[in-house]
């Protein structure tokens, strides 16, 4: 090869290197998601996004961002973006590391009305705590804070794997789970009737939501209630939605959010 040919080859390689290095990316993490952004690359037909070696999405050439969702909190992730042409050749790539943040903190709802279920629900304060279980994975403990500042864990009522989970429990039992059930019942039950027994029928957990299905025996009948806790961000503020729904008579005696314009769910805002 001549000296001139070598120079031309070198220049072509250098141009290819500069071209291939043109893609840059950045990322910003939330409690259960990460948003990846990148600049454009000339000639790209689409962009492939990966988390580690796991393929996430193929986006068209006009795309400049992607949000990876349903991610565990307080976790670091390695992402990559590859710009590819119509022949599926990689034109350039970029790598970025980002960490999810946490939902942990104290959330509060304030009653702006005189409907307080006999003074029992003037405000609601809850604490969210991220925990992990070998079998259940990552989930959130939800604690309700009583008037004296003491915490009562209302979700889950039992540790995962607890042999008492799923068993019928006497309403007056001295166990911590029974106390937590009574605490919620006394605050949100508007009727004078006291349940006889109760049991956890089912628990559903996700990265930012949890639900507990409780069966209650009262007046010779069995009712089912579902308590839902959902974490979300609105206008940049972390919030916690708390809603209990019931079947039949159970649904009609539940105390619901009395604030006008807020719906049935109690929407708590993170205060610390």
Number of strands: 17
Fraction of helical residues: 10-25%
The strand line-up of the biggest sheet is 11-10-9-8-17-16-15-14-13-12
| Count of DSSP H/I helices | 3
User: Would you list the SSEs in sequence order as H and E?
Assistant: HEEEEEEEEEEEEHEEEEHE
**How would a crystallographer describe the biggest sheet?**
10 strands, antiparallel
Report the β-strand fraction as a percent range: over 45%
Terminal CA distance: 70 Å
Derived from helix and strand composition plus strand pairing, the structural class reads mainly beta
Q: Note poorly predicted spans.
A: 1-21
Global Rg = 26 Å
General shape = elongated
Q: Quick check: average pLDDT? A: 89
How would you explain this protein's 3D organization?
A ten-stranded antiparallel β-sheet has the order 11-10-9-8-17-16-15-14-13-12. It has a four-stranded antiparallel β-sheet with strand order 4-3-6-7, with no helix packed on it. Helix content is 13%, strand content 47%. The longest helix has 18 residues, at 3-20. It has helices at 3-20, 176-188, 249-252, and strands spanning 25-29, 34-38, 46-51, 54-60, 65-68, 76-84, 90-99, 105-110, 123-133, 137-145, 151-155, 169-170, 197-205, 209-218, 221-234, 237-246, 266-270. Residues 1-21 have low confidence and may be disordered. With 272 residues, the chain is mainly beta. The chain has three helices and 17 strands.
